[in-house]
Write a structure and sequence with these properties.
Elements (H helix, E strand, L loop, with lengths): L2 H26 L5 E5 L6 H17 L3 E5 L6 H8 L7 E6 L1 H9 L11 E10 L1 E5 L8 H10 L4 E5 L5 H13 L3 E5 L3 H9 L5 E5 H9 L4 E5 L14 H4 L9 E8 L4 H15 L2 H10 L2 E2 L4 H22 L5
Parallel strand pairs: 1-2, 1-3, 6-7, 6-8
Antiparallel strand pairs: 3-10, 4-10, 4-11, 5-8, 5-9
Helix pairs in contact: 2-10, 4-12, 6-12
């Protein structure tokens, strides 16, 4: 047998051994702590959901699952942390409609690709955003807000979690459809945006209900509308913006999901997905998240990948129509 023939015989054996080794690694997973990187600060919607999943995953896996907030750059800093880590299932990221759908259209120089550089694990939840104003703003509903803004073009500012986030695009869509001039003020996360709105530094905020509703319940902000097509069970008296403002077709839903770096073994991704879906199906987890305004929605990796691609296409249209871009 010549050298070429021997090599041809060895290739299938090598591939078989490599496959068996990868399967063995996946079966043993996890053997050390797992880190979930969050693109927004502590107490943000992403942080709240990451901690809910991490606590249960710690119990079920027998390994500590740590939440690591890395705010800044509307998710870019967190994405780079994850993509610079080994693709071994031990560094994951909570991505959002901002970081893994909108960003592809709104940023000219995005240093990562939401599809090519990541593997979807599971969707975690969808969350309405609340349109809120400081109590000193003399409006009681969305139509009054529009009239007030038209009488003061360019004087009403709205705060969000950052440039190119779902809240930002929700505001731009509102501006476009209502034909008003709001000024966008970007922060490093919804907690900071809400602090500035509560203090009266900014008149208005568009933030996840997870972080905004406690401020409304405490009387520190006034809720005018939710950005989803239907009211939230958490705030049933707050109408959808489409209805409250007379803007048929208006809709901006924020979603969160778990991602791994591209190249992570498929068996590990599948296992993590099954765990997340099971965790979201637990009564205590579901009840807690729904009470805060989040609707748990676990998905298989393939279903989540298809959903992500449909969201990228949807938001690309909104970005094109709004003209929002970031260098």
């Amino acid at each position: 047998m010549n050298a070429i023939s021997r090599l041809a015989c060895l290739i299938p054996v090598a591939l078989s051994l490599a496959g068996a080794a990868a399967q063995a690694v996946a079966q043993a997973y996890p053997v050390k702590p797992i880190r979930i990187v969050v693109p927004f600060p502590p107490a943000s919607g992403a942080d709240i959901l990451a901690r809910a999943v991490a606590a249960k995953l710690t119990q079920r896996s027998g390994q500590q699952v740590l939440v690591d907030p890395r705010p800044g750059g509307s998710g870019i800093i967190a994405a780079e942390v994850v993509l610079n880590a080994p693709a071994d299932g031990y560094t994951l990221m909570v991505g959002t409609s901002s970081t893994h759908a909108i960003s592809l259209s709104v940023r000219r120089k995005l240093p990562y690709h939401p599809v090519r550089d990541f593997m979807p694990i599971s969707k975690i939840a969808v969350v309405p955003m609340l349109v809120t104003v400081h109590p000193s703003v003399p409006v009681k509903n969305a139509k009054e807000l529009i009239a007030f803004a038209r009488s003061r073009p360019g004087q009403i500012a709205f705060a969000t979690a950052g440039i190119g986030t779902t809240g930002h695009l929700a505001g731009e869509l509102f501006k476009s459809m209502a034909r008003v001039e709001f000024v966008h003020v970007a922060y490093r996360g919804s907690p900071q945006a809400l602090i500035e709105t509560v203090s009266g530094q900014v008149s208005m905020a568009i933030s996840p209900i997870l972080t905004a509703y406690p401020q409304v319940a405490a009387g520190r902000l006034r809720a005018l509308a939710v950005t989803t097509p239907r009211s939230s069970p958490t705030a049933p008296s707050v109408p959808p913006l489409a209805e409250a403002a007379g803007l048929p077709g208006y809709e901006a839903t924020l979603w969160y999901g778990l991602f791994a770096p591209a190249g992570t073994p498929r068996d590990i991704v599948t296992r993590l997905s099954s765990e997340v879906v099971a965790i979201l199906g637990l009564n205590d987890v579901g009840e807690s998240l729904r009470k805060q305004g989040a609707q748990p929605e676990g998905m298989t990796p393939d279903a989540f990948a298809a959903y992500q691609k449909s969201e990228i296409a949807k938001w690309a249209k909104v970005v094109k129509e709004s003209g929002v871009t970031v260098n």
